[in-house]
Amino acid sequence: MPRFDQFPEFATRLSYRRQTTSRGGLFLGLARLSLMGVTASMSSGCLIKDPPPYTQPKQTPPRLDLVAALPSPDQLIVRNTGDTIAFNVPVVSEDAGDRLEAWLQLDVGTPDEDLITTANVPPSTLDDTSRAFTLSYTVEENLASGCHRFTLRVSHELNFTSGTNVLDPKDVAEVYWWANIDPENSTTLVNCPLASSGGM
Question: 10: domain range?
């Protein structure tokens, strides 16, 4: 508290006290407003936004790993009557809940066309590299010696309509193998290419 002789000449004790008190109140008011502003800015920065809505992954066509496929599609298969050919082809795809189905066929597009067997794998995602189609064929006695083509046709199960026909041809993957059956009895392999990545 200042001494009386320190007050301005025009001020009384009471008026000076009011003057100093009003200045202090103004300072406290400004400090409170500043603090409220800082608090408001901090609280707005801590708000947690709602996560984006979940969207179902889109289905993608199957992709066959031909490098890891067995037998290799680029090698001629040689077997005799009674021998078994085991096929193993890794596959990846985004399935959106629809499993993959594979059809193994013999000599597609010829009078001797035949469905050998089918297989399926459960639905999964593109990150899953553990799936593979495993099928086999035992060479029958009535199969003519010479060159034959095996076709593996893969698509989503709901895409198949009747037999190997499909609704969407873009949702299909195929791999081919050429086989020389009973080579000792074969007279010619003119129509049997070394690589099996194309048609007959």
Answer: 4-45
Q: What is the number of structural domains in the chain?
A: 2
Q: Within this chain, do residues 73 and 156 fall inside the same structural domain, yes or no?
A: yes
Per-residue pLDDT of the chain (200 residues; tens, 9 = 90+): 555 555 555 555 555 555 555 555 655 655 566 666 555 555 555 677 777 776 777 999 999 999 999 999 988 999 999 999 999 999 999 999 999 999 999 999 999 999 999 999 999 999 999 999 999 999 999 999 889 999 999 999 999 998 899 999 999 999 999 999 988 765 555 556 554 443 33
Q: Characterize the bridge pairing of strands 114-121 and 77-79.
A: unpaired
Chain CA centroid to CA 27, Å: 63
Check whether residue 21 and residue 79 sit in a common domain.
no
Q: Which residues contact 161 (CB under 8 A, 6 or more apart)?
A: 167
